[in-house]
Hints:
alpha/beta, Rossmann fold, 24% strand
Amino acid sequence: MSDGREVLAVEGLVQQFEGRHGLADRIARRPRHVLRAVDGVDLVLRQGETLGLVGESGCGKSTLSRCIVGLYQPTAGVVRLAGESIAGSPTRAQRRFVQMVFQDPYSSLNPRMTVGQTLGELLRYHRIVPRDQVGRRSRELLDLVGLPHRALGQTPRQFSGGQRQRIGIARALALEPKVLIADEPVSALDVSVQASIINLLLDLKQSLGLSMIFVSHNMAVVRQVSDRTAVMYQGRIIETGPTEQVFHEPAHPYTRLLLGSVPRLVTHVAAGGGRAATAPVVASAPDGTALDQDGAASAVVPEPAAVVGGGCRYRPRCPVAVAACATEPGLRLVGGDGHERHLAACQHVTGAE
């Protein structure tokens, strides 16, 4: 459980990417297209807490994660680690403070290096242990993630997807971070091994005293692992609060859409009292948006409100949009107080901003 101390804070974070601007565009004097992948995000993570960051594909979750870990330099805003601001490129100590487990375990590992070389390089460069203890520490890291010591002499192609993700977790833990960001850590894995990786992350968080940001588009998984949940849509946080409160009393229409998109097993009883059969129900979201195999809506949807006239970004899809939605709302208090408060960016929420 969280002890209330702030270990990571994001304030007004903006990350934008400029599109291609070729010769023909310059001759025609077309403006350069700018994508604001993250647009003014505020976020807080406390010691010992797991924050679930959820939203459909393309909403900016991974971009935000990469800004926090230092892979992208934000266009604007501030990232603070234990109260210390990251200015420009992170220092070596700041890189150690927060580490990331990537979605695709194979592409995040160097296929030419053995596991021992991968771990040893980190341990030596960051001087985690004396050089003569690198081998011992590498074996300890494999023990932490449930892999045999012989894996040190093998390359990533010799492992299954689940084993590769365990190697990725060991690599992240090699730097002894205080914060671990798990970016869709099980979405590229077989269903049969997803639960084991999730349980491993939770066990490591508990035993090592880590704080964690768990990024996913799967609401069921987020509910299982998170103390607090932040819902992201088109680059902004549109609802945040204690996980059970967000799931039981969702205040934003988009959060309700995501919860309605979670696949459910429905039992069908054959005529004449035959054997019952179960089948997953995943067809479309309440607003008609097509869903993928995990029940997550695609972010390829009608143009953002910022393009079609301003106001709430969810307005083109929202079933309860009103005239007041032409003005984009800030996060408003739904219920609770202190650090457990529940906030939502919706005109139908009447609490103070």
